[in-house]
Amino acid sequence: MADPVSTTASGPGGWARAGRRAGIAGAAIGVLAAGAAAGVAVERLAMGRGVRRRARQALDAAGPYGTLRGTPGTAVAEDGTELYYEVEEADDFPAPAPDAAAGDGTATDAPAAPRRRRRRFPGRRDPAPLTVVFSHGYCLAQDVWHFQRAALRGRVRTVYWDQRSHGRSARGAAQLAGDEPITIEQLGRDLKAVVDAAAPEGPLLLVGHSMGGMTVMAFADQFPDLVRDRVAGAAFLGTSAGDLGRLTFGLPAAGAWAVRHFVPGFLRALGSRAELAERGRQATADLFAGIIKHYSFGAESVDPAVARFAERLLESTPIDVVAEFYPAFAGHEKTESLTLFRDRPGLVLVGDRDMVTPPAHSATIAQRLPEAPYEVVADAGHLAMLERPDRVNDALSALLARVGAPGAAQAGARSVRRTHGTSRRTL
């Protein structure tokens, strides 16, 4: 997430030079390219490759994560890109049992049977309900919200969407045509297209993680009137309003310097040779999985099935998409757009061990949002929604209650104390 540099890799010699110059940064490519979007199920490299492969297959078969589905729809972006989303109406599913509201995923992992809709009487039009719109992060997909989806079914209307070139959405049309590079501003306009298609009426609660949080900020910056008129609140999870060029990713000074100077060019080289890079990524999956787990999760005890699920999200993101999106973060600066959320309920949440978008970035956001509790989740990394779903779901439930969503009572009260002008609680 640093300024692009002039490193090139034209021709075989250039490719070799780019690889050599990456140096320390090369070891972190999998982490940076994925936005710390994956984990690893089996880490003992002394095991045979076949054993590790069978272990992954067993975890894939056993894990229910990413299986929840809603009513599909397609929004069309301004450049013609088809953006996939799913809607879940509050009365499509039975309300979750009390023990499921905590978000452990055990009671609601299987798709619930749709519940019969309430009868509508001719001539009567109920007011549009609150819609919660979830925007995922870099190299992830809407399925990363699995635990939140399980907890919110039957409680509130929700929309989950895949950002362009991610998940089930189409590749960015403008990028495929070579007309323009991807920008965070474009993602904000994509969110507007999804809102227009999936939630054209009624109040909105916007939830964004990492790049998804940046998308929400870009949306507000470009459509301030819509925010003032319809957005009831916003939640920013593990994200940043800017100043990404100084991230160290927990590396020592030499490693951070290498990342900032060599990663952009190295990723361009990978993107230009996507097929070769994909084969290389598969061949070194075990090496990168261990590194990526370090950046995705804060605790060593993360459920192997959850870690493998996150790893699969990484594997589903083509390497040329990874390379295409990376430069967009350098120009991200949306601190001023946060003022549009200043007078409404909000949430700022981050893992205390997040090395991708560290707590200091969330603290900066919280300082701009006096109505947003600032919550630091203990022993959590960048993917707190997967690693500590109960904590994240409690915080979202509290926010839903504050914006007046029916049936969204908080799943467990926790004390809140004021610290340096922001509301902070360590969960």
Can you summarize this structure?
This protein is α/β, with parallel strands linked by helices. It has one domain (1-108, 127-427): Alpha/Beta hydrolase fold, catalytic domain (Rossmann fold, 3-Layer(aba) Sandwich), CATH 3.40.50.1820.
Question: What's the number of domains?
Answer: 1
Report the strand count. 10
Class based on secondary structure composition and strand pairing? alpha/beta
Count of alpha and pi helical runs: 16
What does the main sheet amount to?
A: 10 strands, mixed
Identify the CATH architecture.
3-Layer(aba) Sandwich
- Radius of gyration, in Å, reads 21 Å
Low-confidence stretches: 1-48, 99-121, 251-257, 410-426
How many angstroms separate the termini?
28 Å
Report the principal-axis shape.
globular
Secondary structure: elements and pairs:
Layout: H1 11-22, H2 24-34, H3 49-62, E1 71-76, E2 82-88, E3 131-135, H4 146-152, E4 157-161, H5 173-176, H6 184-198, E5 204-209, H7 211-222, H8 224-230, E6 231-237, H9 253-272, H10 274-283, H11 285-296, H12 304-315, H13 319-325, E7 346-351, H14 359-368, E8 373-377, H15 384-387, H16 389-402, E9 417-419, E10 422-426
